[in-house]
Amino acid sequence: MVTSDQRRRQLAREKYARQQERREERRRKAKQRNIVIAASLAVVLAAGGAVYASVALTGDSKDSDSVAGDTPTTAAPTPTQSESAAPEPKMAVDAKATYTMTLKTNEGDIAIAMDAAKTPRTVNSFHHLAAKKYFDGSKCHRLTTDGIFVLQCGDPTGQGTGGPGYNIPDENLDALGKAGADGKVTYPAGTVAMANTGQPGTGGSQFFLVYKDSKLPPSYTPFGKMDAAGLKAVKDVAAAGGVDGASDGAPKKPVTVEKATVAKK
């Protein structure tokens, strides 16, 4: 029989474990907020902001990427990586063709049209990763609903700390026109673009889905466009907001990429 004293000690241990879990979660979120990607900008993320640190397929952290919050503040260090940990995959796509990347998610399918003539190495990377089922079962870990309007996906860890272990170069950066006096261009609703560390040539596997026109530096490869059904699905996720009402963090309505495929049109 469990005595009242033993029961009190058990409850105390359980309370302590819960407190430790909450402290660890706060530390993790604080660490994520300290690593951001606004090119030539240092930013502070709102509570729950996500980081994109690219890692090898084995899970060893090597380089880092993220998509930005957009509030300039005092300078903060941004992780960089001079060399990729793994080689970029060899070209296996037709550089003159168009491709469709289909993300089957629990919130609806998102079809993304990609033009390999404009972004051959980006399309090739997604073709390679999708064939390896790299994205299958991954969560879209970051939603921003203030300043910029994007849902960020592509991290198999679901934490904003995963990537393929190699970098791909920036492509098609002039597609959205010249930057204005603020150094930014408009990424129209429906655009799909690569996340990066804020440094040139640091794209990995993470990407962001723009659900409302967003002003950003022209530093993120725009490689695709969502179909109408996909854009609506992302808008519906955004309408639910972030966890605990955060404007930059995990979406309140969880999004899981159940399967990703890339096919030539």
Q: Give the rounded overall mean pLDDT.
A: 80
Low-confidence stretches: 33-64, 71-84
For the record, what CATH class applies? Mainly Beta
CATH architecture: Beta Barrel
CATH topology: Cyclophilin
Cα distance spanning the termini:
69 Å
* Total of DSSP H or I helical runs spanning 4+ residues: 3
InterPro entries: Cyclophilin-like_dom_sf, Cyclophilin-type_PPIase_dom, Cyclophilin_A-like
GO molecular function: peptidyl-prolyl cis-trans isomerase activity
Function: PPIases accelerate the folding of proteins. It catalyzes the cis-trans isomerization of proline imidic peptide bonds in oligopeptides.
EC number: 5.2.1.8
Walkthrough of the structure:
The protein is α+β, with helices and mostly antiparallel strands and 265 residues long. The protein has a single domain, classed as Cyclophilin (Beta Barrel), CATH 2.40.100.10. 20% of the residues lie in helices and 22% in strands. The protein has three helices and twelve strands. The chain has helices at residues 4-33, 120-131, 228-239; strands spanning 98-105, 108-115, 138-139, 142-146, 148-153, 185-187, 191-194, 207-210, 214-216, 222-226, 248-249, 256-264. It has a ten-stranded antiparallel beta sheet with strand order 3-12-1-2-10-7-8-5-4-11. Strands 6-9 form a two-stranded antiparallel ribbon. β4 and β5 (148-153) form a beta hairpin. The longest helix has 30 residues, at 4-33. The protein is globular and about 75 Å long. The termini are far apart. Residues 33-64 and 71-84 have low confidence and may be disordered.
